[in-house]
Specification:
InterPro entries: Acyl_CoA_acyltransferase (IPR016181), GNAT_dom (IPR000182), N-acetyltransferase (IPR051531). This protein has 174 residues and is an alpha+beta fold. The protein has helices spanning 22-28, 32-37, 46-64, 109-123, 139-147; strands at 7-8, 12-16, 68-73, 79-87, 94-100, 129-134, 151-156, 165-171. β1 and β2 (12-16) form a beta hairpin. α1 (22-28) crosses α3.
């Protein structure tokens, strides 16, 4: 049992990522899409995946009560991807992000999971705004962000980075 809130949709369980997800995180962080669009996190072993969860995922979850979530298909327990709410340096608020294994893309899982997490951001965690970033060539990500209701808001360069990213924003209407 996880001490933090999990969420469900018709097809999915969305629960905070934990050490038990290390083999899945290792696989996800080494997919061609992750390496191309998010970047190499130097997670080259299960031990490195555990250390990544410990140092990059759990601290924010413990600090804010939300962070990275593992997306699991209810029908068979398969881990499909991750989505999350991130306190990312260089952004004026919380970033919504997602990444799925290639074999689970184009089935609507990313929208289903991130839409539920967007609702949770506003209704459960009390956020009033969400932000998102994506590379200029990641058309699938841009399309999903727009489907979630985020609006393109120009370009941004994060601290200690060289690449300009597309910057999106959504404010909860009162």
């Amino acid at each position: 049992m996880h001490p933090y809130t999990s969420f469900e949709t018709e097809r999915l369980i969305i629960r905070p990522t934990s050490y038990e997800d290390a083999p899945f995180i290792y696989e996800l962080l080494n997919t061609p899409q992750w390496l191309k669009y998010i970047g190499d996190r130097n997670v080259k072993s299960l031990k490195a995946a555990e250390e990544y969860i410990s140092s990059r995922m759990l601290p924010q979850l413990e600090r804010l009560g939300y962070g990275t979530y593992t997306v699991i298909r209810k029908a068979d327990g398969t881990k499909l991807g991750t989505c999350g709410l991130y306190d990312r340096e260089g952004l004026p608020g919380i970033d919504i992000g997602f990444a799925f294994l290639p074999q689970h893309e184009k089935h609507g899982y990313a929208f289903e999971a991130t839409n539920k997490l967007k609702q949770a951001a506003f209704n459960h965690f009390g956020l009033r705004q969400l932000y998102a970033i994506t590379t200029k060539d990641n058309k699938a990500s841009q399309k999903l962000l727009e489907k979630l209701g985020l609006k393109y808001n120009g370009l941004i360069t994060l601290p200690n980075a060289n690449e300009e990213l597309f910057f999106y924003h959504l404010t909860l209407e009162k």
